[in-house]
Amino acid sequence: MRFLTSYFATIPYRDVLITGSQRMQERPIGILVEALRTMGAEISYQKNEGFAPILIKGKDIKSDFIVLEANVSSQYITSLMLIAPKLKNGLKIRLRGNITSMPYLKMTATLLKRLGVNCLFGKNTIEIAPKRSIDSVSLTVESDWSSASYFYSVLSMSPLGSSVFMTSFREYSLQGDSIIKDLYSDLGVDTTFQNGGILIEKNRHPSNKARHYNFVETPDIAQTFVVSCFGLGVACQIEGLHTLKIKETDRLLALENELKKLGADISVTDHSLTLNPASFQKDKLVFIDTYKDHRMAMAFSPLGIIRPIGINDPSVVSKSYPDFWEDLKTLNFEF
């Protein structure tokens, strides 16, 4: 929705109504809409101020400068970056404060450059020059590291010597979520790059020391990692989670609710999470509510390695990984 909002705002003489599911209508879009309005776009709310549905009356946008708070969702900024080459004078984006999810912005900038777009990424500014047509370029799309995180989680709770090979991953990845190879090394899972992919192996048990992490640049893998720590009995304190509250669901609250069902000692704030080791019944079947959030379903499923687990509304994974359950079956998971 965020990318389409910016795109249709730049298409002259075309009116577009954008809406979505009930949850999509609860996710804020006001920051992006106000930025586009400042640039000259004509967008109106059809129901609630700051939320979809929205009516967009497309037009030529001539403004070439916008200021945004740097701690907003990276999707707002990426959305503006993607329309910048289409604007007559390009676009300069100034970001105030500390940037959230920096790797996603750098990935967008790098891909724009590969398409022949002049993009300068400074400390708190992004300058993108206009370009009438995009160069013809062949790009190989790397596999998704956030999707790989679920299999890292499976391995972390598997017996020593267990391994999985996954194709089409690069050692020097543009994806910020590639940090999982380092995070899970701390939990006993090692990564070897070979034959155009990764071999991940469970080589040791994690130590009992408490862990402290900051996920401000990689919030999409937070749920998976927290569930792994719970399954392993590892204490962790995680900061930088403020954007989780405006995802498909309030992911911080959802994590707290569902982990407590399993006996977790967990507490959350608006931006952080603390998990302490806790005993739990490994033979009791507990069903996890997914809150219409694909990542909730996939993050909790690896617990099936160590205890019976049920997932309500399993089809929710279709948003990002339709074959997830079939791929889990290849690792001898039974449903």
Automatic annotation (TrEMBL):
Name of one Pfam family that matches: EPSP_synthase
Pathway involvement of the protein, from the record: Metabolic intermediate biosynthesis; chorismate biosynthesis; chorismate from D-erythrose 4-phosphate and phosphoenolpyruvate: step 6/7
EC number: 2.5.1.19
Keyword field contains Amino-acid biosynthesis: yes
Gene Ontology molecular function terms on file: 3-phosphoshikimate 1-carboxyvinyltransferase activity
Biological process (GO), any one: chorismate biosynthetic process
Keyword list, A-Z: Amino-acid biosynthesis, Aromatic amino acid biosynthesis, Transferase
Stretches assigned to the Enolpyruvate transferase domain: 1-328
Source domain of life: Eukaryota
Top-level EC class: transferase
SUPFAM superfamilies: EPT/RTPC-like (SSF55205)
Record's catalysed reaction(s): 3-phosphoshikimate + phosphoenolpyruvate = 5-O-(1-carboxyvinyl)-3-phosphoshikimate + phosphate
Protein family according to the UniProt entry: Belongs to the EPSP synthase family.
Protein name, entry field: 3-phosphoshikimate 1-carboxyvinyltransferase
